[in-house]
Hints:
Blueprint: E1 2-6, H1 11-14, H2 17-26, E2 31-36, H3 42-51, E3 55-59, H4 72-78, E4 84-93, H5 101-118, E5 122-127, H6 130-138, E6 145-147, H7 154-162, E7 166-169, H8 179-187, E8 193-195, H9 217-228, H10 232-246
Parallel strand pairs: 1-2, 2-3, 3-4, 4-5, 5-6, 6-7, 7-8
Helix pairs in contact: 9-10
Bound molecules: zinc ion (2 copies).
Amino acid sequence: MIDSHCHVGFDELKENIDGYLARAQSQSVQLILTVACHEHQLSDLYTILENYPTIFGAFGVHPQENKQTISIERLKEIVQHPKIIGIGETGFDLFYEPDSFDHQKHNFEIHAQVAQETDLPLIIHSRSADAQTIDLLKNFKDITGVIHCFTGSADFAKKALDLGYYISASGIITFKKSQELRDIFKTIPLDRLLIETDAPYLAPEPYRGQINESVYVSKVLEKLAEIKDISPQELDKITTQNFMNLFKKVREKI
Ligand SMILES: [Zn+2]
Ligand SMILES: [Zn+2]
């Protein structure tokens, strides 16, 4: 399995990455993509990427960082790192930050522009912002990426798929109240699905409320396999291949 999105560099996890990785590997999680959300997190990210061959990285200014911005040149320079394979997370969070739309849009456009220029995929965080996300992505042709931790509407999923994006399932699909979301995942083509934890957040059932870890991506896989009515083994193969297809740069390193 691959955990396509987590935050190993965050305070809850970074003190014991050896243990974190050992637990993940014991459940066949072979590869982890860790996301840094602020330039302050870059030195920790570089250390992690240097020390752990099976952990890859992504960088972007998170939409909730409402004071932070970055230049196109600086972002391009950061993502040249050989183990940084994606740009983000970027996007809109109008749930927690409804008042900084213009700032978020400015940052989102910078990330999309760099994705266009570098041919790296975008990792998109979109919360309470279905229409705004689609409107922005429509303006950037020839880029692709993933809607991470998908919680949007059926219409949003369809439009993102039409634009060529992948859709990633998190532990939220295991929650009791998420029937509507499970119904949307039923309709998403197998060749566009990814799985993630978003650790340390969003631990799946039966660990809900605890600190999440990549090892629990198996619970996301199991639930998604149930939704898609195929075996977890088969879905593991498919989502692993999808990850390799989207995050092409990883293939140079493994
Ligand atoms: Zn996010
Ligand atoms: Zn995240």
